[in-house]
Design goal:
alpha/beta; Spore Coat Polysaccharide Biosynthesis Protein SpsA, Chain A; 2 domains; 12 helices; about 50% helix; about 15% strand
Amino acid sequence: MNTPSLSVVIPTFNRLTTLRHVLPSLLNQTLPAQAYEILIADSQSTDGTDAFAREIAEREGTGRVRYLPGAYGSRAAARNAGIVASRAPVVLFTDADIIASPDLCERHAAGHAAHGARKVAIVGCELQVRSLEDYRRQRDEPSVRRPLHPPTRRRLSWLYFLTGNASVRREDLLAVGGFDEAFTGYGHEDLELGYRLVRHGVEILYDPQAINYHWHPVAFGEQMGRMELAGISTVRFYRKHKDPAVMINLGMTPVSLGLHSLLSALPGLVRVFERAGAREEAPRKNTWPYLARQIAYQYRYVGGIKRALREERAAS
């Protein structure tokens, strides 16, 4: 069996609906089939993922697709299982609800090959789509895309190390200990790994042409819950590293905490923001519903930070 040059790691849990589209997009790449492998790290899904993944693996043969079920307690643990099982020198992380462009794997493999032994990570362009129809539109009409970064950007900080579209040399991942499995809630396990990679000497590069499409629209109420969990993860991140840059970049500052206290004293105003934010499922930027939604999200996020700090004090 040939040793692949790229291992694609996909953590999943009950994402069969989207995985049925994601996996074919990864199997039909411009990179030759023998040059990459796909590892599905499944946290004991109950929606038929097992049968689907095993069927694909058997059909493809030669170990090109490997199914790795396990009692993974988090996305961090599932991704770590993929890193350990990977056979290639470069690991590409994506997710079970992110559809790949045909040259995604080729872009990441070529990017690392171009830098030789230099320590780099490559982050691609992850576009948000609301539906399969929206995916097809953005795929076919580049003018309607709204990427996070301008196409001229070439380097990123750890703050943008997002593992829906990111590749790293396996030896660098192992050198820093992989993902921290203590991040069991939502948020920051990827940023925290990016932070350690940068401290290890890895430069994070941006490839605007390494494109994939994140098909997971999140309702307003669900996203508010996620933001609170992300705030809790921020405290864990800072306590681990005690770096003021972490505190500042992730909004764990006296100013943000003070503004949260001010809003908390005005619950009626908070409800105004939340009602306005919930008014449109996908509000346009610079509109009142959009601005209200961002304020509501930040309120919940800082609330998560405060909750984690309270729990710390209670435990001490």
